[in-house]
Every structure is written in structure tokens, then in C-alpha cells.
Amino acid sequence: MIMKKVWKSVLMLIATLTLSFPSVMPTVQAATDDSNATSSSASSNKLAEIKAQGKLVVGTSADYPPMEFVVKKNGKDKIVGADIMVAKKIADDLGVKLVVKDMSFDSLLVALETGKVDMVLAGMNASPERKKSVDFSHTYYHGGNVFLINKSDAKKIKSGKDLAHAKIGAQTGSLQYQMVKKNMKQATMKPLDNINNLVLALKTHKTQGIMLDSLIAKAFVANDSDLKMVKDIDMPDNKSVGVAVAMPKNNPDLVAAVNQTVDEINAKDLMNKEYLPAAGKQMEKVNVKKTMWDYKSFFLKGVGYTLVIAATSVFFGFILGILLSLMRLSKVKVLHAIAVVYIEFIRGTPLMVQIMFIYFGIGSLISSLPAMLAGIIAISLNSGAYVAEIMRSGIQSIHYGQTEAARSLGMSQKMTFQYVVLPQAIKNIWPALGNEFITLVKDSSLVSTIGVAELMYQTQLVQSTTYKGVAPLAVTMCIYFVLTFTLSKILSYYEGKMSHHG
Predict the structure, then answer these.
(1) Which of 58, 110, 278, 375 is the most exposed place for a label (fewest CB within 10 A)?
(2) Domain ABC transmembrane type-1 spans what residues (predicted)?
(3) Count of beta carbons in the 10 Å neighbourhood of residue 111
(4) Helix or strand holding residue 191 (H, E)
């Protein structure tokens, strides 16, 4: 009936979508070819591949001062720290350019195994468990672990024994997390993937202590008078296994080359004589008492990325939603089944998982897939499933008698759908579509987990830079409110216009 004619319009829509990606499609094809080459060479010589590309892609989690953190230099964000200096020396020794990718700590090994990065330098301990999935260089830093507590609790917490039954925080996937889990079985674990969030949980008394490397703990204590270190943690395996460079399995040439650089760093004691002192000076420059206004450039950059992600995802999510709703309403069983399976699957899985699957899963086949593009694709695909159901309900809300009346007046099926059914359907579902768009703006914050510099990512950078947990979050909440409130008013305005014309 109507749907058979409408499919001509749908096919035109698909053609339009295809043509809207002229610059992306060749890139994807080239990336696919590169990925095939990568997969064949990864097991033979990763070192040769890095030299051929002329760049070394290093993954890190820039919330771990003085090992890796972010400063503002010449108006731009720059990841610095002792680990980054080690990475720079490795790149220089290999004769290639250094490229640093920032993402959450617990995503780093996944990024390494899927080829998104060539190696990981993130204060990562070369533990036996990690050695099962990746190879490590020789260690270049050894530190001990301590508990970080609130100074107000110092009288009752003097050693690790006093935290035996407490709530303990540790970074997800870290050696400290494994240590607490193994040695403090009566304690309640409160793992988080971000050091700043761990410290915030401690300061708001969600936990009584967090385990950190002593070097990182010193950095927080030096910049926050409310915190204190407890060095006596009373654990037999407290001795650090050592921080090292993580690399893909079965690449002996790469490991040998990196070890040559690490051995030189150790022989000259560069970590203690140059890298850590230099990182300390960079921290001193950014840790001057400042207000949140001084970090407005961070927040403005985050807003810009958030708006781009949201606007692009709304556009493609809306088009995909229309396509899926027509497929679900179709009498063609195959199309109907595809739409149902897609919609139910997308609505039944978390957006966070979808983002990570697109970036790390699909991204392992298309190695050049940028994090931002992966985030936009994931959010668009997710939004399309919800928009499809909203559109379907709107189309089905229009009485079939109106279609018959339009046809009796000589209108074609396409014209009937375009000028009678669709306008009324959109008018009926406009509030629901508005809610979906507002939700999408907020959901864009999830792409920060793969290193996209949107608003939440920038907030975490401000937290790392200022050692303040609550103030940056308060600013971010206000910014999100302004964005969503403005969008809500715009949508309400057009809703009123449609009601007036109706």
C-alpha cells in the first residue's frame, strides 16, 4: 500500500546518506587495506610497521601526575609528565614522531590488543596477570604503595590494619586494585576508573582510604592540605613490581628496541635526575591558586565538541530512525525482522558498551577510525533505534481514514505520506523527539571514555590540573543545564508553532 511507494523515497534517502560521506568512504577503504597489512605484519615485525608509518602511537591515562597529566600550553591542551618523557625518548631513538592518545586506564590494554595504540605508558606495573596478554619492557620506575586518607581521620587510621573493614578505593584494573582485593578480604572495594574520581570519593567520605603509588599520592598531598598519606599498609607484596612499557605480544624486535632505550634511562638515572623533577616543575606552574574562570578555555572546548557530536548524531539518528520505522511497519517480512532485531538489540545493550565496541571492535578492522567518529557512529546508531520507535508510534497514531480521504482526492501514496501522514505524526511525537534529543546531548559525555575531548573529558582535565573534584563538576552541571534548557525552549517554540498551524 502506502509503504511500497514510500520505499522509493527511502532508497533515495539511502543514496543521499552514501553521497554525504564522500571523504570518509575512501579513508575507510584505505584504512581497511592498512588494517589487513597490519594484521599480517603485527606478528612478524611491529617495529618495522612503526618505522614505516613514521609515528609511534602511545596510549596513556592523563590523570596520574607526575607520570602523566595535562597542562595548557600556547592555548592548547598538552599531555606531559615523566612517562611522556620516556615515550618521547623511545620515539626519538626509533626516529619517529610521538603521538599520544589519552583514554581511561582500564581501556588501555584493550586499545593495545586491538591495535589502536602501539604501546602503553601509563604508570603501568608489569604484573604477572598483565604479562599473559601483553609484553613488557624492562622496568624504569619502582615505587611503593600507600594509602591516601583524609587528614581528619589521621588519629584513627595509622596503618593499613585500621582500614581492614573499611571502604577502600582503587583504580579499576590497577595493581593496587588487585592488592586490596587479595589482601583485604574484609574490606569493601570501591573501584573507579579515574584517579580524580577516587580522590573525590575519598574527600566526600564515600571511602575511608584509597591505595595509590607513593609518588602519585605525594602529588595530591602536596596540593591538598586535607589529605594525608599512610605508608604502613601492612601487605607482604607491597613492593612494586615496577613500571614498564606495555607492548603487543610476540614482537621481540620492538621489545628489544624499547629495552635499549629503557636501559639507557636506567643507566643514567634519568627518571630521578631529569624526568620526575621536570614533571614536578610543570605541576608547580599549573597548581597556582586559580578560579574555574581561569579554565574557561577547557570548558569552552568541551562544549564545542559536545555540540558537534550531539548535532551530528541527532541528524543521522533521525534519518536512521525514519528508515527503521518504515522497515518495521513494512509488510516485507525480512525488512520487518531486521528492524525489530536491530531496535531490540540496541535498546537492550548499554550505550557505553556500544561506544567501546565501535571504537575497539570495529576499530581493530579500521585502524585509522578516529575516536570522535567512532563516538558519533555509536551514538547515532543508538539514537536511531529510539527514534524509530517514536516515529512508528507517531505514524500509527494517524487514523487510516485520513489516508483514504487523501487518496480519494487524487493524491498519490507518496504525497499522502509526505503531506498528510508525516507532518501530523511529527507534530504528535515532537515532545518525545525533544526528550530524545536532550538525552542525546547528555549521553555524549560517554565518549570521554575513549578519549574524545568533549565536556566531561575536559572536566576531568580540569580536575587533574587543579586537584579539585567538586568545583569542575559543578561548572559542568551548569553548562549541561544551559545547553539542555536552551534546546528545550527551542523545541517548545517550534511545538507551539506547529500547534498554531494545526
Answers:
(1) 278
(2) 303-488
(3) 25
(4) strand 188-192
Q: Which domain holds residue 179?
A: 145-230
Residue 108 in any domain: the answer is yes
CA distance 355 to 79: 24
Q: Are 296 and 311 in contact (CB under 8 A)?
A: no
Mean pLDDT for the chain? 83
Burial code of 38-49, b = ≥16 C-beta within 10 A, e = fewer?
beeebeeebbeb
pLDDT tens-place string over residues 140-154: 998 788 999 999 999
User: What does residue 14 show for φ and ψ, rounded to 5 degrees?
Assistant: -60, -40
186 to each of 180, 189, 297, how far by Cα in Å?
Answer: 10, 9, 45
> Does residue 320 form part of some domain?
yes
Which of 20-29, 138-147, 250-259 has the lowest average pLDDT? 20-29
Q: What is the mean pLDDT of residues 386-410?
A: 82
- Last residue of one domain, picked from the residues 430, 451, 472: 451
Provide the residue type at 452 as one letter. Answer: V
* In a shared domain, residues 275 and 419: no
Helices (H) and strands (E) counted in the chain, each on its own, are 22, 12
**CB neighbours (10 Å) of residue 53?**
15
Question: Residue 123: left (phi > 0), alpha (psi -120 to 50), or beta?
Answer: left
Give the span between the Cα atoms of 313 and 326, in whole angstroms. 20
The model's confidence at residue 26, banded by pLDDT at 50, 70 and 90, is: very low
* Greatest pairwise CA separation for the chain in angstroms: 90
Say yes or no to pLDDT of 16 above 50: no
User: Does residue 137 share a domain with residue 149?
Assistant: no
pLDDT at residue 200 tops 60: yes
Regarding whether 152 and 130 lie in a shared domain, the answer is no
Burial class (CB in 10 A: 0-12, 13-18, 19+), 15: exposed
Check pLDDT > 90 for residue 461: no
Q: Which of 246, 203, 236 minimizes the C-alpha distance to 221?
A: 203
| 298 falls within a domain | no
Q: How buried is residue 208: exposed, middle or buried, by Cβ count under 10 Å (0-12/13-18/19+)?
A: buried
Average pLDDT (398-404) is 77
Give the residue, 451 or 7, on which the prediction is more confident: 451
Structural domain count of the chain:
3
Q: φ, ψ for residue 193 (rounded to 5)? A: -90, 0
CA distance linking residue 426 with residue 289, whole number of Å: 51
Question: DSSP of 24-93, one letter per residue?
Answer: HHHHHHHHHHHHHHHHHHHTT-HHHHHHHHTEEEEEE-S-BTTTBEEEEETTEEEEESHHHHHHHHHHHH
CATH number reported for the structural domain that contains residue 400 in this entry = 1.10.3720.10
Question: What is the rounded CA–CA span in Å between residue 447 and residue 378?
Answer: 9
Q: Give the residue from 89, 395, 68 showing the smallest Cα distance to 270.
A: 89
